Every structure is written in C-alpha cells, then in structure tokens.
Amino acid sequence: MSREEGGVVAPEVIVALDVPDEDAALALAGRLPEGTWVKVGLELFTAAGPDAVARLSDRGHPVFLDLKVHDIPNTAAGAARSAARLGARLLTVHASGGRTMLEAAADAAAEAAEEAGTGRLRLLAVTVLTSLDDAALAEVMGRGAGTEEAVGRLAALARGSGIDGAVASVAECRAVKAVCGADFLVATPGIRLAGGDVHDQKRVATPAEASAAGSDFLVVGRAITAAEDPAAALARVRAEAGAADWTH
Ligand code: C5P
C-alpha cells in the first residue's frame, strides 16, 4: 500500500536541479541513480525550457515541474495541458489563484495526460510561500489571517478543487494532512541532513522528521547537489527517511 493510499511507506526524494542551464542539469542528473525524481524550477525552465524537461524525462527521471502557475483559468489550464504533454509528473499551481483556476488546471492536466498517454500529471498547490511570515503576508493580503490559518484554508480550497496535494514546510505537514486527509499529497522542501549546513533556509527539518510528519515527497536541493558525491548524499537522505536505496 502506498502512502497515498494511507499506508506507511517511505517518502520519495526529489532532487532540485537548481542550475542555470541544460548541460549542468543533465550532468547533475547523470550523477544520480536511474529513475531518481528531479525538480525543474523557474531558474532552469526559464533558461532551458521544455527541452530540459523532455530530455530528463527521456532519460527516465520523473520530473516535478515547479512553475507555481498563477493566472486566469484559461491560461493556467493551458500551462497544465502543456506540462502534461511534456510528460511532467508533478506541477505546482498557486492555491490563491482561486477555485475556478484550480479546477480548470486540474481538468486540463487530466485530459491532456490521457490524450498524450504520458501518465498522470498530479498538481500540487502552493499555499503560502514559506518565505512569508505573518507580517509579510498581512502586507500582501491586508490585515487578518496569519500564515497558519491561511495555509489550512488554501489547502482545503485546493483539495476541494481537485488538486492532488500541496507544497508545505515540514512544520505544516501534519496540519495540512489533518485538514485535507492522509491521501492528500504533501511535498516538503527545506530538508537538511542531521548536522548539515542550513544555507538560506530558515526552518529546516531532517529527512527523518519529514518522514515522521507524513511527507510524501522530500524536495532536496543543496544537501544533495552540493555534495561531493550526490548519489551517496541521496542514499543518506533516503536512509534517514526510512526508505531503502531504491528508485521507482
Ligand atoms: O537547496 P535546498 O534544499 O534549500 O532547495 C530547496 C528547493 O525547494 C529549492 O528548489 C527551492 O526553490 C524549493 N522550495 C523551497 N521552499 C518552498 C518551495 C520550494 O525551498 N516553499
């Protein structure tokens, strides 16, 4: 039984390829075991575009496309459709884009993946960016809700709009699962090996803490990509998260 079905299975580790061009992305991916999940974010996508996603997918790496889509429903649906046709397996959308946008993106992703035969593209909602604290959120949204309340409300909105999961800090993971159910996927960034460098992240957690909080996907960048031996660092993250050193 998978985590998604409520079973106790170790989370998947996604390696964030935060590099400026396709050559660097392919070189880094080439140092990881076959089948390792990779994240293509705004930096790499803006530089190398869909080609990088297609090439990584062709080499057997499931791609988490972290484009944080936030637009009118028609445009967001178009982005989801294009991502599905490219063969991406996970795509982020902003929950604050609202119900109509979320439903349009979810429907378009499902339809396009079926048409293209690329396998399901699951959508993850960004609730409140983890770089925003209560004061910064109030500056954007006006007085009122704090981040914790906003995260729960936006995650519930996403769930009710057909979105498969959310991106959240490890500290928010349990609350999101409590509001949305165990089968609502949660991807957690800000992961550091016990005793590792925290870099610019404010709130970090170890793989074991993320796994215990119920995270389905650990998004890990520098703890793996800046290591001398990225494959060995990935194996350590997997071991700490309770996963065997395998890929699927
Ligand atoms: O190097 P590090 O492990 O901090 O990288 C974390 C990855 O997760 C980066 O790609 C970053 O953009 C992403 N991320 C994050 N916090 C979020 C959402 C995504 O750190 N709230």
What does this structure look like?
This protein starts with 11 loop residues before the first strand and ends in an 8-residue tail after the last helix. It is globular, with a radius of gyration of 17 Å. α4 links the parallel β4 and β5. With 248 residues, the chain is α/β, with parallel strands linked by helices. α1 crosses α2 and α6 crosses α7. The protein has ten helices and eight strands. The protein has an eight-stranded parallel beta barrel with strand order 1-2-3-4-5-6-7-8, surrounded by six helices. It is 45% helix and 15% strand. The structure holds cytidine-5'-monophosphate (C5P).
Key features?
single chain; about 250 residues; alpha/beta; 8-stranded parallel barrel; 8 strands; disordered C terminus
- Rounded average pLDDT: 91
Sheet-strand content, in percent, reads: 5-15%
Following the backbone from N to C, one meets helices and strands in this order, namely EHEHEHEHEHHEHEHEHH
Please outline the major beta sheet.
8 strands, parallel, barrel
Give a concise summary.
45% of the residues lie in helices and 15% in strands. The chain is an alpha/beta fold.
Task: Give the secondary structure arrangement, pairings included.
Blueprint: E1 12-16, H1 22-30, E2 37-40, H2 42-58, E3 63-69, H3 73-86, E4 90-94, H4 99-116, E5 122-126, H5 134-141, H6 147-160, E6 165-167, H7 170-180, E7 185-188, H8 207-212, E8 217-220, H9 222-225, H10 230-240
Parallel strand pairs: 1-2, 1-8, 2-3, 3-4, 4-5, 5-6, 6-7, 7-8
Helix pairs in contact: 1-2, 3-4, 6-7
This protein binds cytidine-5'-monophosphate.
Residues 16, 18, 39, 41, 129-130, 167, 189-191, 199, 201, 219-223 line the site of cytidine-5'-monophosphate (C5P).
